[in-house]
Amino acid sequence: MQKIMTVKEWLFALGIYPSLEAIEKFSLFFEMIESSARVKYPKEDLPPSLFKSGKIKKLSQKKKASFTSFLEKLDVAKEMAKYEKQGIKWVTILSEDYPFTLKQIFSPPIVLFYKGNFELIKKHTWLGVVGARACTEYGLEATEHILQPLIKKSEKEIGVVSGLAKGIDTKAHQVTLDASGSTIGVIGTGLDRYYPFENRTLQRKMIEKQLVVSEYPIGAKPLKFHFPERNRIIAGLSRGILVVEAKKRSGSLITAYNALDEGRDVFAVPGSIFEQTTDGCHRLIQLGGILTKESEDILKEWMYI
C-alpha cells in the first residue's frame, strides 16, 4: 500500500533523499507536477524551467523505484522533528517564501534548508562574490577595496552572497560583517557541518544575525559534485556575480557562467597577465563581463549613483 503524504511532505522527502543529484531531483519534481491530479498549481508559482520540459532529462525507472522505496520506509514526521531540534528551517520550491530569483534558474533546489534570518533575502539586492580558495594578497586587498565602499555607498542595500569557503569567500563575508552589512553563506554540506572546519566561528556568527543556506540534508558531507551545484544557488540568489580571482578552470568560473546563463550581471576584477589566478577573470572580461576596479563600477551599473 502506497504511503499517503502531503505535497509539502513529499517535497521534504525529495529534498533529504541522498541518492540523487540536484538535476535528478528536479526531474522527479517535474514528473510530480505533470501527473498530479490532486493539485493544480498557478503558473506563476512554478519555476519557469518547467515549461522548457524538453531540456529536463527523465529519471530512470530504477532510480524512481529506489526513491519510492525510500518513501515507504521514511517516517517523515520523525525526520522533520530532527531538523526542528537542530534549529534548521526549510522552504520548498512551492512555498510563497521561496526566493523569487532562485526559482528562475534552470534547476532550482527543491528544498532550501536554512539557519538564521531568512527575511534578509527580501530586504536587499544581492551581489554574489566568488574567487580562488588559494588566493593572493592582491585578491584579498581587491575584495576589501571594492566591497567596503560598495556596502557603505549603497547604504547597506547591497548584500553579499558567497560560499563560506577559504580565500575570497571568507574575505567577502568578513568585510561585509565588518562594514555592518548583510551576508548570506551558501554551503555544500548539511547545516550540521562546518566546511572548511576553520570557518566554524564565522559560520556560527553568520547564523546568529545573518543567513546560511544549503540544499543538502543533515549529515551531508562535502562531496565534489556538491560545489558546482552550490554555485548555481549563489548565482540564483544574486543580481550579479563579482569574480575576484579565478583560474581558467575553476568553480568561480562555473558560478559566473551560471550567472551569464541566467541573464545576471558578471563583474570581473582584472589582475596581472603573469598570474594564473587572474586568467579566468580576464576571460570573463573578453566575453563581455564588466571590468571592475572599484565599487563605482558596480554602483553605476545598478544605478545607485
TrEMBL record:
<dbReference type="Pfam" id="PF02481">
    <property type="entry name" value="DNA_processg_A"/>
</dbReference>
<protein>
    <submittedName>
        <fullName>DNA-processing protein DprA</fullName>
    </submittedName>
</protein>
<dbReference type="InterPro" id="IPR003488">
    <property type="entry name" value="DprA"/>
</dbReference>
<dbReference type="InterPro" id="IPR057666">
    <property type="entry name" value="DrpA_SLOG"/>
</dbReference>
<dbReference type="GO" id="GO:0009294">
    <property type="term" value="P:DNA-mediated transformation"/>
</dbReference>
<comment type="similarity">
    <text>Belongs to the DprA/Smf family.</text>
</comment>
<feature type="domain" description="Smf/DprA SLOG">
    <location>
        <begin position="90"/>
        <end position="302"/>
    </location>
</feature>
